[in-house]
Protein backbone atom coordinates (compact mmCIF):
# COMPACT_ATOMS: atom_id res chain seq x y z
CA UNK A 1 0.00 0.00 0.00
CA UNK A 2 1.29 3.44 -0.93
CA UNK A 3 0.13 6.61 0.73
CA UNK A 4 1.12 10.23 0.86
CA UNK A 5 2.10 12.29 3.89
CA UNK A 6 1.64 16.00 3.29
CA UNK A 7 3.24 18.63 5.48
CA UNK A 8 2.33 22.29 5.16
CA UNK A 9 4.48 24.85 6.95
CA UNK A 10 3.43 28.52 7.09
CA UNK A 11 5.54 31.49 8.19
CA UNK A 12 4.30 35.08 8.29
CA UNK A 13 5.19 38.45 9.76
CA UNK A 14 3.43 39.46 12.95
CA UNK A 15 2.04 42.88 13.61
CA UNK A 16 -0.69 42.91 11.00
CA UNK A 17 -4.33 43.64 11.84
CA UNK A 18 -6.12 40.90 13.69
CA UNK A 19 -8.61 40.42 10.81
CA UNK A 20 -5.82 39.64 8.35
CA UNK A 21 -4.31 37.17 10.77
CA UNK A 22 -7.71 35.54 11.26
CA UNK A 23 -8.17 35.16 7.50
CA UNK A 24 -4.81 33.49 7.18
CA UNK A 25 -5.48 31.09 10.05
CA UNK A 26 -8.91 30.29 8.61
CA UNK A 27 -7.44 29.43 5.22
CA UNK A 28 -4.69 27.34 6.77
CA UNK A 29 -7.31 25.49 8.79
CA UNK A 30 -9.29 24.82 5.61
CA UNK A 31 -6.23 23.40 3.87
CA UNK A 32 -5.32 21.22 6.85
CA UNK A 33 -8.97 20.14 7.23
CA UNK A 34 -9.07 19.12 3.59
CA UNK A 35 -5.98 16.99 4.08
CA UNK A 36 -7.03 15.65 7.47
CA UNK A 37 -10.66 14.91 6.68
CA UNK A 38 -9.63 12.93 3.66
CA UNK A 39 -6.72 11.24 5.38
CA UNK A 40 -8.27 7.96 4.33
CA UNK A 41 -7.50 8.89 0.75
CA UNK A 42 -4.31 7.29 -0.41
CA UNK A 43 -2.21 7.36 -3.54
CA UNK A 44 -2.96 3.96 -5.01
CA UNK A 45 -1.09 3.25 -8.21
CA UNK A 46 -0.93 6.92 -9.05
CA UNK A 47 -4.69 7.46 -8.81
CA UNK A 48 -6.27 8.93 -5.68
CA UNK A 49 -8.73 6.51 -4.17
CA UNK A 50 -10.56 6.00 -0.90
CA UNK A 51 -9.16 3.26 1.29
CA UNK A 52 -11.20 0.84 3.38
CA UNK A 53 -10.59 -1.72 6.04
CA UNK A 54 -10.44 -4.24 3.18
CA UNK A 55 -12.55 -7.10 4.54
CA UNK A 56 -11.42 -10.54 3.42
CA UNK A 57 -14.02 -12.56 1.51
CA UNK A 58 -13.66 -16.28 0.93
CA UNK A 59 -16.56 -16.83 -1.46
CA UNK A 60 -16.12 -16.80 -5.23
CA UNK A 61 -18.33 -14.72 -7.49
CA UNK A 62 -20.15 -15.93 -10.61
CA UNK A 63 -22.33 -13.48 -12.55
CA UNK A 64 -24.24 -14.51 -15.69
CA UNK A 65 -25.88 -11.94 -17.94
CA UNK A 66 -27.20 -8.46 -17.28
CA UNK A 67 -29.83 -9.89 -14.98
CA UNK A 68 -27.06 -11.51 -12.96
CA UNK A 69 -25.63 -8.07 -12.21
CA UNK A 70 -29.08 -6.84 -11.21
CA UNK A 71 -29.51 -9.77 -8.83
CA UNK A 72 -25.99 -9.26 -7.50
CA UNK A 73 -26.88 -5.66 -6.63
CA UNK A 74 -30.24 -6.63 -5.13
CA UNK A 75 -28.37 -8.98 -2.79
CA UNK A 76 -26.40 -6.00 -1.52
CA UNK A 77 -23.10 -7.02 -3.13
CA UNK A 78 -22.49 -3.94 -5.31
CA UNK A 79 -23.76 -0.46 -6.09
CA UNK A 80 -24.59 1.38 -9.30
CA UNK A 81 -27.20 0.91 -12.01
CA UNK A 82 -25.19 -0.56 -14.90
CA UNK A 83 -25.19 2.53 -17.08
CA UNK A 84 -22.11 4.25 -18.47
CA UNK A 85 -22.65 7.18 -16.10
CA UNK A 86 -23.39 4.93 -13.12
CA UNK A 87 -21.78 1.51 -13.64
CA UNK A 88 -22.18 -1.37 -11.24
CA UNK A 89 -19.35 -1.10 -8.72
CA UNK A 90 -17.67 -3.96 -6.91
CA UNK A 91 -14.88 -2.56 -4.75
CA UNK A 92 -12.81 -2.30 -1.59
CA UNK A 93 -12.15 -5.79 -0.26
CA UNK A 94 -9.78 -8.75 -0.42
CA UNK A 95 -11.02 -11.97 -2.02
CA UNK A 96 -9.18 -15.19 -1.23
CA UNK A 97 -9.63 -17.99 -3.75
CA UNK A 98 -8.38 -20.74 -1.49
CA UNK A 99 -5.83 -21.85 -4.14
CA UNK A 100 -8.60 -23.29 -6.27
CA UNK A 101 -10.29 -22.12 -9.45
CA UNK A 102 -11.27 -18.64 -10.64
CA UNK A 103 -12.22 -15.95 -8.15
CA UNK A 104 -14.62 -13.81 -10.25
CA UNK A 105 -16.28 -15.39 -13.30
CA UNK A 106 -18.33 -13.10 -15.55
CA UNK A 107 -20.36 -14.25 -18.55
CA UNK A 108 -22.58 -12.78 -21.27
CA UNK A 109 -23.15 -9.23 -20.07
CA UNK A 110 -23.27 -5.84 -21.78
CA UNK A 111 -23.97 -3.55 -18.82
CA UNK A 112 -21.25 -1.19 -17.59
CA UNK A 113 -19.36 -2.22 -14.46
CA UNK A 114 -16.21 -1.44 -12.47
CA UNK A 115 -14.06 -3.72 -10.37
CA UNK A 116 -11.63 -1.65 -8.33
CA UNK A 117 -9.53 -1.54 -5.17
CA UNK A 118 -9.72 -5.30 -4.68
CA UNK A 119 -6.90 -7.64 -3.73
CA UNK A 120 -7.24 -10.99 -5.48
CA UNK A 121 -5.16 -13.67 -3.82
CA UNK A 122 -4.60 -17.42 -3.95
CA UNK A 123 -6.35 -18.36 -7.17
CA UNK A 124 -6.06 -21.75 -8.81
CA UNK A 125 -3.01 -22.88 -10.78
CA UNK A 126 -4.83 -24.73 -13.57
CA UNK A 127 -5.12 -23.37 -17.09
CA UNK A 128 -7.56 -20.42 -17.24
CA UNK A 129 -7.85 -20.12 -13.47
CA UNK A 130 -7.80 -16.36 -12.92
CA UNK A 131 -8.50 -13.54 -10.55
CA UNK A 132 -11.06 -12.27 -13.07
CA UNK A 133 -12.28 -14.41 -15.97
CA UNK A 134 -14.62 -12.97 -18.61
CA UNK A 135 -16.51 -14.67 -21.46
CA UNK A 136 -18.56 -12.53 -23.88
CA UNK A 137 -18.44 -9.53 -21.55
CA UNK A 138 -18.42 -5.89 -22.67
CA UNK A 139 -17.93 -2.53 -20.95
CA UNK A 140 -15.63 -3.50 -18.09
CA UNK A 141 -13.38 -1.20 -16.08
CA UNK A 142 -10.78 -3.07 -14.03
CA UNK A 143 -8.84 -0.50 -12.05
CA UNK A 144 -6.46 -0.26 -9.09
CA UNK A 145 -6.61 -3.94 -8.16
CA UNK A 146 -3.86 -6.29 -6.95
CA UNK A 147 -3.49 -9.83 -8.21
CA UNK A 148 -1.31 -12.14 -6.10
CA UNK A 149 -0.59 -15.84 -6.51
CA UNK A 150 -2.64 -16.86 -9.53
CA UNK A 151 -2.32 -18.62 -12.85
CA UNK A 152 -3.76 -15.59 -14.69
CA UNK A 153 -4.59 -12.20 -13.28
CA UNK A 154 -7.20 -11.59 -15.99
CA UNK A 155 -8.33 -14.07 -18.62
CA UNK A 156 -10.84 -12.93 -21.25
CA UNK A 157 -12.48 -14.39 -24.35
CA UNK A 158 -14.73 -12.55 -26.82
CA UNK A 159 -14.88 -9.54 -24.52
CA UNK A 160 -14.77 -5.99 -25.86
CA UNK A 161 -14.40 -2.39 -24.69
CA UNK A 162 -12.39 -3.15 -21.57
CA UNK A 163 -10.23 -0.68 -19.63
CA UNK A 164 -7.46 -2.20 -17.48
CA UNK A 165 -5.54 0.53 -15.65
CA UNK A 166 -3.66 1.02 -12.39
CA UNK A 167 -3.40 -2.67 -11.47
CA UNK A 168 -0.54 -4.73 -10.02
CA UNK A 169 0.05 -8.30 -11.20
CA UNK A 170 2.24 -10.64 -9.17
CA UNK A 171 2.03 -14.29 -10.17
CA UNK A 172 2.51 -16.70 -13.03
CA UNK A 173 0.87 -14.74 -15.87
CA UNK A 174 -0.56 -11.28 -16.23
CA UNK A 175 -3.35 -10.84 -18.79
CA UNK A 176 -4.45 -13.28 -21.48
CA UNK A 177 -6.89 -12.41 -24.27
CA UNK A 178 -8.64 -14.39 -26.99
CA UNK A 179 -10.67 -12.61 -29.68
CA UNK A 180 -11.03 -9.45 -27.60
CA UNK A 181 -11.36 -6.02 -29.20
CA UNK A 182 -10.74 -2.48 -28.00
CA UNK A 183 -8.98 -3.48 -24.80
CA UNK A 184 -7.07 -0.59 -23.23
CA UNK A 185 -4.19 -1.79 -21.01
CA UNK A 186 -1.91 0.89 -19.59
CA UNK A 187 -0.35 2.19 -16.37
CA UNK A 188 -0.15 -1.29 -14.82
CA UNK A 189 2.70 -3.06 -13.00
CA UNK A 190 3.57 -6.54 -14.23
CA UNK A 191 5.75 -8.57 -11.87
CA UNK A 192 4.98 -11.94 -13.44
CA UNK A 193 7.00 -15.12 -13.87
CA UNK A 194 6.16 -15.71 -17.53
CA UNK A 195 4.26 -13.45 -19.93
CA UNK A 196 2.78 -10.07 -19.11
CA UNK A 197 0.09 -9.39 -21.71
CA UNK A 198 -0.59 -12.23 -24.08
CA UNK A 199 -3.08 -12.79 -26.85
CA UNK A 200 -3.50 -16.47 -27.66
CA UNK A 201 -5.22 -15.55 -30.90
CA UNK A 202 -3.99 -12.73 -33.06
CA UNK A 203 -7.52 -11.61 -33.83
CA UNK A 204 -7.56 -9.50 -30.68
CA UNK A 205 -7.22 -5.72 -30.87
CA UNK A 206 -5.56 -4.22 -27.81
CA UNK A 207 -3.82 -1.00 -26.87
CA UNK A 208 -0.90 -1.29 -24.43
CA UNK A 209 -0.46 2.43 -23.99
CA UNK A 210 -2.80 5.31 -23.36
CA UNK A 211 -4.24 7.12 -26.34
CA UNK A 212 -4.09 10.45 -24.53
CA UNK A 213 -1.20 12.20 -22.82
CA UNK A 214 -1.10 12.46 -19.04
CA UNK A 215 0.44 15.04 -16.75
CA UNK A 216 2.47 13.14 -14.19
CA UNK A 217 5.23 13.57 -11.66
CA UNK A 218 8.23 11.25 -11.48
CA UNK A 219 11.50 11.62 -9.60
CA UNK A 220 10.51 15.03 -8.28
CA UNK A 221 9.80 16.47 -11.73
CA UNK A 222 6.66 16.99 -13.82
CA UNK A 223 6.19 15.60 -17.32
CA UNK A 224 3.53 15.07 -19.97
CA UNK A 225 3.41 11.89 -22.04
CA UNK A 226 1.38 8.92 -23.12
CA UNK A 227 1.84 6.05 -20.67
CA UNK A 228 2.43 2.34 -21.07
CA UNK A 229 3.07 -0.36 -18.47
CA UNK A 230 5.92 -1.53 -16.25
CA UNK A 231 7.43 -4.96 -17.04
CA UNK A 232 9.62 -6.33 -14.28
CA UNK A 233 11.92 -8.54 -16.37
CA UNK A 234 12.37 -6.08 -19.24
CA UNK A 235 14.97 -3.49 -18.16
CA UNK A 236 14.78 -0.27 -20.13
CA UNK A 237 17.01 2.77 -20.50
CA UNK A 238 15.76 6.20 -19.47
CA UNK A 239 18.34 8.75 -20.58
CA UNK A 240 16.12 11.79 -20.06
CA UNK A 241 14.91 10.59 -16.61
CA UNK A 242 11.22 11.06 -17.39
CA UNK A 243 10.20 7.57 -16.28
CA UNK A 244 9.50 6.45 -19.86
CA UNK A 245 11.90 3.95 -21.42
CA UNK A 246 13.59 4.43 -24.77
CA UNK A 247 12.79 0.90 -25.96
CA UNK A 248 9.41 -0.54 -26.96
CA UNK A 249 7.87 -3.77 -25.72
CA UNK A 250 6.78 -5.84 -28.74
CA UNK A 251 4.47 -8.85 -28.44
CA UNK A 252 4.27 -11.74 -30.89
CA UNK A 253 1.85 -14.58 -31.39
CA UNK A 254 3.21 -17.77 -29.85
CA UNK A 255 2.48 -19.84 -32.97
CA UNK A 256 3.59 -17.95 -36.05
CA UNK A 257 5.47 -14.89 -34.81
CA UNK A 258 2.79 -12.48 -35.97
CA UNK A 259 3.42 -9.10 -34.31
CA UNK A 260 0.22 -8.14 -32.55
CA UNK A 261 0.97 -4.99 -30.62
CA UNK A 262 3.66 -2.90 -29.00
CA UNK A 263 4.08 -0.69 -25.95
CA UNK A 264 6.08 2.35 -27.05
CA UNK A 265 5.87 4.12 -23.69
CA UNK A 266 7.10 1.48 -21.25
CA UNK A 267 7.48 2.62 -17.66
CA UNK A 268 10.91 2.07 -16.15
CA UNK A 269 9.59 1.61 -12.60
CA UNK A 270 6.40 0.28 -10.98
CA UNK A 271 3.49 2.65 -11.19
CA UNK A 272 3.71 3.53 -7.48
CA UNK A 273 6.64 5.79 -8.48
CA UNK A 274 4.35 7.96 -10.65
CA UNK A 275 1.62 10.42 -9.71
CA UNK A 276 -1.02 11.33 -12.28
CA UNK A 277 -2.79 14.67 -12.21
CA UNK A 278 -4.54 17.09 -14.52
CA UNK A 279 -7.57 16.75 -16.84
CA UNK A 280 -6.53 13.42 -18.40
CA UNK A 281 -6.14 11.78 -14.99
CA UNK A 282 -9.60 12.98 -14.02
CA UNK A 283 -10.98 11.27 -17.12
CA UNK A 284 -9.98 7.89 -15.68
CA UNK A 285 -13.18 6.62 -14.03
CA UNK A 286 -12.98 6.91 -10.26
CA UNK A 287 -10.41 9.70 -10.01
CA UNK A 288 -11.06 11.80 -6.91
CA UNK A 289 -11.39 15.59 -6.90
CA UNK A 290 -10.16 16.00 -3.34
CA UNK A 291 -6.56 16.35 -4.41
CA UNK A 292 -7.68 19.32 -6.49
CA UNK A 293 -9.50 20.77 -3.47
CA UNK A 294 -6.26 20.68 -1.52
CA UNK A 295 -4.52 22.66 -4.26
CA UNK A 296 -7.39 25.16 -4.31
CA UNK A 297 -7.06 25.57 -0.55
CA UNK A 298 -3.40 26.45 -0.88
CA UNK A 299 -4.22 28.82 -3.74
CA UNK A 300 -6.76 30.53 -1.50
CA UNK A 301 -4.08 31.05 1.13
CA UNK A 302 -1.83 32.73 -1.40
CA UNK A 303 -4.60 35.08 -2.48
CA UNK A 304 -5.59 36.31 1.01
CA UNK A 305 -4.70 40.00 1.30
CA UNK A 306 -1.60 40.74 -0.74
CA UNK A 307 -0.32 43.03 2.07
CA UNK A 308 0.19 40.07 4.37
CA UNK A 309 3.58 38.59 3.68
CA UNK A 310 4.03 34.91 4.20
CA UNK A 311 5.59 31.89 2.58
CA UNK A 312 4.17 28.42 2.07
CA UNK A 313 6.31 25.32 1.79
CA UNK A 314 4.89 21.90 0.98
CA UNK A 315 6.57 18.55 1.21
CA UNK A 316 5.23 15.26 -0.06
CA UNK A 317 6.92 12.11 1.16
CA UNK A 318 6.17 8.72 -0.35
CA UNK A 319 6.06 5.87 2.13
CA UNK A 320 6.08 2.32 0.86
CA UNK A 321 4.57 -0.45 2.96
CA UNK A 322 4.62 -4.13 2.21
CA UNK A 323 1.33 -5.85 1.66
CA UNK A 324 0.44 -8.09 4.53
UniProtKB/TrEMBL annotation:
Chain ranges passing through the membrane: 21-39
Source species: Candidatus Lokiarchaeum ossiferum
Keyword Transmembrane: yes
Protein name: Periplasmic copper-binding protein NosD beta helix domain-containing protein
Domain Periplasmic copper-binding protein NosD beta helix as annotated: residue spans: 88-233
Listed Pfam families: NosD
UniProt keyword terms in alphabetical order: Membrane, Transmembrane, Transmembrane helix
InterPro entries linked: NosD_dom (IPR007742), Pectin_lyas_fold (IPR012334), Pectin_lyase_fold/virulence (IPR011050)
Keyword Transmembrane in record: yes
Amino acid sequence: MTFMVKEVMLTFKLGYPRKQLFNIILCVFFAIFTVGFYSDLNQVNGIVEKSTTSPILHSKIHIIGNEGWSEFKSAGNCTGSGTEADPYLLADCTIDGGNNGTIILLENSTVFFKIENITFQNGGSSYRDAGIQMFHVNNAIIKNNRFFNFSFGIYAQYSNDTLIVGNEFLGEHGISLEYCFETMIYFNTFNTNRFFIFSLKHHSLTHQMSKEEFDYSYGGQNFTSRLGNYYSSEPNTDRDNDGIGESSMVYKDEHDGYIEYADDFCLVKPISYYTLYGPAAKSIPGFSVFQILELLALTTILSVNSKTKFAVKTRIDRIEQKEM
